[in-house]
Amino acid sequence: MHSMITNEYKEIVENKKGKVDVTPIANFFRNEIKEQITKIGGKPRMVAFLTTDDQGALDYSKWTKIACNKDGIEFILKRIERVDLEDAIIEANQDDDVHGIMVYYPVFGGMLDSYLQDVISPEKDVEGLSTTNRFNLYHNIRYLDKEMTKKCVIPCTPLAIVKIIEQLGIYRENVELGQALVGKEITIINRSEIVGRPLAAMLANDGAIVYSIDINGIIMFEAGKRYGTIKMVETKITKEEAMLKSQVLILGVPSPNYKVNSDLIKEGTVVINFAGCLNVDEDIDSKTILVPTIGKVTIAMLERNLMRLYNNQRLKKTLPPQDQLNQYQYYH
Amino acid sequence: MHSMITNEYKEIVENKKGKVDVTPIANFFRNEIKEQITKIGGKPRMVAFLTTDDQGALDYSKWTKIACNKDGIEFILKRIERVDLEDAIIEANQDDDVHGIMVYYPVFGGMLDSYLQDVISPEKDVEGLSTTNRFNLYHNIRYLDKEMTKKCVIPCTPLAIVKIIEQLGIYRENVELGQALVGKEITIINRSEIVGRPLAAMLANDGAIVYSIDINGIIMFEAGKRYGTIKMVETKITKEEAMLKSQVLILGVPSPNYKVNSDLIKEGTVVINFAGCLNVDEDIDSKTILVPTIGKVTIAMLERNLMRLYNNQRLKKTLPPQDQLNQYQYYH
């Protein structure tokens, strides 16, 4: 799983500098998905709700549709008034022909959007943003149900970033579970529940020390006592110190005005930018490995999550009706 | 239920002006609770987690403890590091001697706090802030379980505000369900998921037109087609127009600098302020009914919610173990 899926980056990894185009990584996963769909037949279907005229979201939905259609997935964009969104989500939850549901945020903004994330059934939560799927990620719970028939999905942007890091020579190979990033320090500038915190948890799970930075300060993430759980730790380290110690720097500040000072990034660092805009000077690739955008891999992970949900739902139909009702939440 | 529980406010209601002290309303509900506890015996227990030195939260916890102890409820304040809070909540979820759990927010701030609200089991969510309890409120789902043995709780600040409005001559008596506020217009300046939106939903359920205002604009709330459901509607009305049309104005902006211009509030309006600071000039009581603080009733509703959870959990022990596992969520 951690081995190189392409030779594309060999030179960049050896030289510890250069700009990375993630297309080969996306293609690798998309080919796997395409083959799987060809094999099992059927028509996995994803519905995406858009409530605004945001050009970024429109563009992203176009690319997603093109990729999905090429790979055998039906992608339906539904434009809808924001006040009608909740009802539309509930309808899609109940529609057996819909296997995955996503929403382009912001809709209302703030906590109401967080509420809407949880109206999507965890069983159709293709982006992995529902509290249930996030809780399960943080607590190493792999299944939505007691019977262990429905695998959880992982938020797709953090998943994409982990897949990219795996290809850039950071993970140690042939080590025990939870050991692949032992000794590594990673700084993430973003602690959202959508990307930054799930990502910190995933990297800490593999043994890294993660400095998670947002406007309120820095929190350290480490592996917990049991594999798959995490520990948050207060720290007095500064942002500058954290960046200078890190072998990987992950940037996700959604503002074109936010740029990290290049002097704070040491040579050979892997710099991954997932914000819509570049949070670092473009010429940083002369001394570091720069991944300026990750969108293509995110779309591949979205497809991957959809296939997981599709398979969960195919399986569900073979279970007796009683078990379909028991959507047990482990954590309560 | 809507009838006056005290004659205290008769003059104020008739004159349509004056300052309201909510103590008699709080005492009415607390006396009910005290009697119930005396009757059933037992020791309902609530645990409150505090992760900061915030003086406001400390003061509020002291008042809550005094009220609870007087009424027969054990209130335990646990001071804890924020990084340890999630584990502590999970432990309290699993502790059969704890019937209700609350947290003083902010802890980390932002979406992480929203996540923590959902780590509290809906069965012990004494403040009614979990997504499950809020979803159920918005969709008129009254029970947490399929067997209809565990009643949902309603967020306690909105519940307190409804109880106060009921005492100030706004509700029509002896009308059908969902009709008591027909013809009334109400403005709420706050659309948080903790107070403003659940409150808008509750008032819309009873037939009011609610103008829900936050920094992003105005949304109208009306009763949905089925009783107990709500409809959000886009509107072009301005904040000033909304306030001038309203018989009730509810203020919850957590900033001492935010004051509504008194000229925008018509004579006889019921003005309820639930922010920690007063969002209106204090002398507005010369032309309106002013409720400057509601904290005492909120504490009474917290106790009331705890009793509901306590009774749910007493009942649960008499159910066969299999049924205890089926924590079914209706909406997925």
UniProtKB/TrEMBL annotation, chains A, B:
Pfam families for the chain: THF_DHG_CYH (PF00763), THF_DHG_CYH_C (PF02882)
GO cellular component: cytosol
One of the record's GO molecular function terms: methylenetetrahydrofolate dehydrogenase (NAD+) activity
Coiled-coil residue spans: none
GO biological process terms held by the UniProt record: one-carbon metabolic process; purine nucleobase biosynthetic process
Superkingdom, taxonomy of origin: Eukaryota
UniProt-listed SUPFAM superfamilies: Aminoacid dehydrogenase-like, N-terminal domain, NAD(P)-binding Rossmann-fold domains
Tetrahydrofolate dehydrogenase/cyclohydrolase NAD(P)-binding domain boundaries: 155-312
InterPro entries linked: Aminoacid_DH-like_N_sf, NAD(P)-bd_dom_sf, THF_DH/CycHdrlase, THF_DH/CycHdrlase_cat_dom, THF_DH/CycHdrlase_NAD-bd_dom
Tetrahydrofolate dehydrogenase/cyclohydrolase catalytic domain ranges (all copies): 21-127
Keywords, alphabetical: One-carbon metabolism
Name assigned to this protein: Methylenetetrahydrofolate dehydrogenase
